[in-house]
Amino acid sequence: MAVQSYGRPRGHRSGALAVTAALVGSLASAAAVSGCAASEDPKPAGDPVLTVRSAADALARAGTSKASTSMEMASGGTRVTIRGEGGYDFRRRTGRLRVVLPRDAAGASEHRPITELLTPGALYMKNRGAGVPPDKWVRVDTTTLDDGNLVTGGATDPGAAAELLRGAREVVFVGEVELAGVKVGHYRGVADIAAAARAASPQLRGALAAAAKGFADDSVPFDAYLDAEGRLRKVRHQFSFSNQGRTVAVASTTLLYGFGAAVEVTLPDRRHIYAGKIET
Questions:
Q1: Contact 72, 244 (CB under 8 A)
Q2: How far apart are CA 186 and CA 45, in angstroms?
Q3: What CA–CA distance (Å, rounded) separates 183 from 227?
Q4: Distance from C-alpha of 117 to C-alpha of 149, rounded to nearest angstrom
Q5: DSSP secondary-structure letter at 273?
Q6: Does 270 score more than 60 pLDDT?
Q7: Is 194 helix (H, G, I), strand (E, B) or coil?
Q8: Mean pLDDT of 246-274
Q9: What is the DSSP string of 223-270?
Q10: What does DSSP assign to residue 160?
Q11: pLDDT score, position 45
Q12: What pLDDT, in 10s, does the model give residues 196-249?
């Protein structure tokens, strides 16, 4: 499978070869809520800013969950969507996703799914690209990525997606909606990446700090949906960066459900990590 090298947000470090940036998909309206029905008389629960900033702590108390991801990217009239499925442990900050590239997005009709292991400070990918043996993994130090792995892997790390909300500001309570049969509160605002990095858990602070330096704009608009226990059920972030003179718009959506589900992440042995050159 040939996977292209994709551009990254502005930054001075080489980082790792991105999986996604030349794959571009449409930015849906921040107000769009697929499968949600508004209630007649929504009422906010507490201060919206503090409520959203506390979502990462509520997930840590919950422990684990299943996760679905969608990354839509758009640039120059080209639109694509990359999807992922798996699970995440919010206490250990580890997860496993099966990421599926769209047809023809990298110049071929079929692409093997990419297995991604998410850990504090590192991203492991299998079936990463041409030239990598099928039994080998590619390891990326997320603290060296210009985006902190918010977009590089084709799926925003669910832990980072939640921790980014620690930098929430200008938050408004939109209303109560129903999401997959669960009543949730819909909050809309802007997250400051630099502020989130300062407040983030130690395991993810380095990656968010890298993103704060790499993105030209620290402000990230978001829509977040929290249940009655304050757990994040859905979040949609909108990123924008310049790539070779073109503006790339990215909408990353993370859905969390099945709290308490078993999540096992076994890191590959060092001898199974590819150390050679990746064709791009």
A1: no
A2: 11
A3: 6
A4: 12
A5: B
A6: yes
A7: helix
A8: 92
A9: EEEE-TTS-EEEEEEEEEEEETTEEEEEEEEEEEE-TT------PPPG
A10: H
A11: 60
A12: 999 999 999 999 999 988 887 889 999 999 999 999 999 999 998 766 777 788
The token duo for 64 is: 């684990």
Q: Do the bridges between strand 64-75 and strand 182-192 make them parallel or antiparallel, or are there none, so unpaired? A: unpaired
Please enumerate, as own/partner, the contacts of 87-90 that have beta carbons within 8 Å and a separation of 24 or more: 87/258, 87/261, 87/262, 87/263, 88/64, 88/118, 88/158, 88/159, 88/256, 88/263, 89/63, 89/64, 89/263, 89/265, 90/56, 90/59, 90/60, 90/62, 90/63, 90/64, 90/65, 90/158, 90/159, 90/162
- Arithmetic mean of pLDDT over the chain: 82
Q: Which two tokens stand for residue 245?
A: 């003179």
Q: 153 to each of 24, 145, 181, 197, 203, how far by Cα in Å?
A: 13, 10, 30, 19, 18
Q: Structure tokens of 113? A: 């799914």
Partner residues linked to 170 by β-bridges: none
Residue 101 pLDDT: 86
Structure tokens belonging to residue 242: 């310049």
| pLDDT, tens digit, 9 for 90 and up, residues 39-90 | 344 456 689 999 999 999 999 999 999 999 999 987 677 788 999 999 999 9
- The 3-state DSSP class for residue 91 equals coil
How would you class 98 by CB atoms within 10 Å of its CB: exposed for 0-12, middle for 13-18, buried for 19 or more?
Answer: middle
